[in-house]
Amino acid sequence: MRECFVEHGAVIEADGFPPITGREGWVQTFTRLAVENSSIQDRHHGHNPQIHFTGTDSATAFWDLDFCQINVKERTIVNLSGQYTDEYQRINGRWQIKNMRFQRSSFVMRQVNVEGEERVLALGQPPATGFIQNNL
User: Is position 136 within any domain?
Assistant: First the structure.
């Protein structure tokens, strides 16, 4: 993931996260929230890209996101969607993300009890606690 972003000055903003400047901060955050947490199963599906070249070595893009997270320890399921607005820069022949902004448009969090019955915990906005992005 590190190499997807420019080496210096990447700006990453996503609803629910503090702004992150620099790719190392994003890698550390992602590693702590998803990679090191064996209870988390994520599906991050970007689609419908709209990429516009703004110069020989620059571009902007909009991507739609559908995201599903299963936390097997807490027995929760999160579905959210939104849109990425990205700026790309070609450096030494490689396209990398210079700026990435994610804006959430929908959110639902459910909990599944041992009988398999679901209960909605949050609808529209993440809860104040209990969703992994709030555990920063």
Answer: no
CATH, residue 73? 3.10.450.50
Q: Do the Cβ atoms of 30 and 20 come closer than 8 Å?
A: no
Specify the pTM.
0.83
Q: Strand pairing partners for 121?
A: none
Question: Do 104 and 16 touch, CB atoms closer than 8 A?
Answer: yes
Structural domain range at position 81: 2-127
The answer to whether 104 and 87 have CB atoms below 8 angstroms apart is no
Q: What is the pLDDT of residues 57-71, one digit of tens each?
A: 999 999 999 999 999
Q: Both tokens of residue 126?
A: 């993440």
